[in-house]
Amino acid sequence: MRTVSVQLGNRSYAIKIAPGLIDQLGRECARLKLGARCAIITDTNVGRRFAKAAFNSLATTGFSPSLIVVPAGETAKSLKTVQTCYDLLAAHRLERKSFIVALGGGVVGDLAGFVAATYLRGIAFVQVPTTLLAQVDSSVGGKVGVNLKAGKNLVGAFYQPRLVLCDLDTMRTLPEREFRAGFAEVIKYGIIYDARLFAQLERDLPKLLRREPQTLAAVVARCCEIKSDVVGQDETENGLRAILNFGHTIGHAIENISGYGKFLHGEAISIGQVATAKLSSGLMGLSGDDAGRIRDLFKRAGLPTQIKLKPAQRQKLFAAMRLDKKVSGGEIKFVLAKRIGRVVWGQRVAGELIGSVLDEIGNRKS
Ligand SMILES: NC(=O)c1ccc[n+]([C@@H]2O[C@H](COP(=O)([O-])OP(=O)(O)OC[C@H]3O[C@@H](n4cnc5c(N)ncnc54)[C@H](O)[C@@H]3O)[C@@H](O)[C@H]2O)c1
Ligand SMILES: [Zn+2]
């Protein structure tokens, strides 16, 4: 088993990565010295596959779990579902020492984490992420929350879990498209922080796409290490944490304008990262060689790297970028790459330049 520790003073916690961890859930939770009563929050897809094992593991180690199953998909990340969860927690008489297990992808993690952060002014929670994206990104770092009609993640909190268990066996049932989308975040860590990781991804890509457990374990652990390193230095995003948004300004805008469901988040940020690498070549001196390696790796991972936009869509894309939560004082700030493994944040980029880069990546025949 690999263990990564997130250092946040008295809110520090461990991320454990190995196959078979759901069966260890009860034993792992017992070490946290929490109350007996707990609730597993999961979604229909994940619940069908893994809830029984999680439930049994908790029950046989002396816990008294209840199971809350929410619909699969982004729409479950709503205040309405939060309300349903509160009512079920109250019915099951969860108390201050009780805890919540978030068993699922980023949707369940964000939702269950927000419920944990607010129920009785905060009870403990444990993350059991079951998508690649959740294992390398959303389960680590303590951002929890739900969506409003006005936009994604507009209500939330910084609230750290007490433990994260990445059970690699859950990767086996993850749909191919979801797996590849999660891989876009993995590549991101190489670009923003670790040239060696990037080279390893280039080399081991076939094994990783086959989901070979050993290779995957090492990569998931490295990504968690990088994220926890960044979050440990800047928990509430006053500076450095912004580098995790590499490719996301354009990516979020693409998600926004293309209508819900066309692109998965990972697919949109794949296009976003390739475009941002291109911008970085012009503005930061990122070498053509590095920009090419970035584009090629996303391509080889089966992710989209370009988008064709009509002029009206392009206008919408700019408008969406300006509405991004990360914009302050009306200015769009970018994370740009100097070379693979090294980025700088807070860079202003002129609108025309973004437009021309998008044109370029959209029209290239390759
Ligand atoms: N908190 C953060 O820091 C952070 C960071 C990145 C993303 N997010 C959030 O994460 C969410 C996206 O997460 P996601 O990509 O994991 O999506 P998701 O939770 O919707 O999961 C994707 C799909 O896969 C299914 N699934 C999950 N695990 C499975 C498994 N092992 N086998 C088979 N099917 C499985 C789910 O039911 C769902 O249909 C978004 O809401 C996003 O805002 C949060
Ligand atoms: Zn992301």
Task: Please tag this protein with its features.
Dehydroquinate synthase-like, alpha domain, binds nicotinamide-adenine-dinucleotide, two-stranded antiparallel sheet, 13 helices, 366 residues, binds zinc ion, alpha/beta, 49% helix
Structure at a glance:
It contains 13 helices and eleven strands. It is of the alpha/beta class.
Topology (elements, then pairings):
Elements: E1 2-6, E2 13-18, H1 25-30, E3 37-43, H2 44-60, E4 64-70, H3 79-91, E5 99-104, H4 106-118, E6 124-129, H5 132-138, E7 143-148, E8 151-158, E9 163-167, H6 176-193, H7 195-209, H8 213-233, H9 248-257, H10 265-284, H11 288-300, H12 311-323, E10 333-339, E11 342-348, H13 351-363
Parallel strand pairs: 2-9, 3-4, 3-5, 5-6, 6-9
Antiparallel strand pairs: 1-2, 7-8, 10-11
Helix pairs in contact: 3-4, 5-6, 5-8, 6-7, 6-8, 6-10, 7-8, 9-10, 9-12, 10-11, 10-13
Bound molecules: nicotinamide-adenine-dinucleotide and zinc ion.
Protein described:
It contains 13 helices and eleven strands. The strands form three sheets. It has a seven-stranded mixed beta sheet with strand order 1-2-9-6-5-3-4, with helices on both faces. Strands 7-8 form a two-stranded antiparallel ribbon. Helix 9 (248-257) packs across helix 10. It is α/β, with parallel strands linked by helices. The protein has two domains: 2-173, Rossmann fold (3-Layer(aba) Sandwich), CATH 3.40.50; 184-363, Dehydroquinate synthase-like, alpha domain. The model has no long low-confidence stretch (mean pLDDT 93). Nicotinamide-adenine-dinucleotide (NAD) binds next to helix 2, helix 4, helix 5 and strand 8.
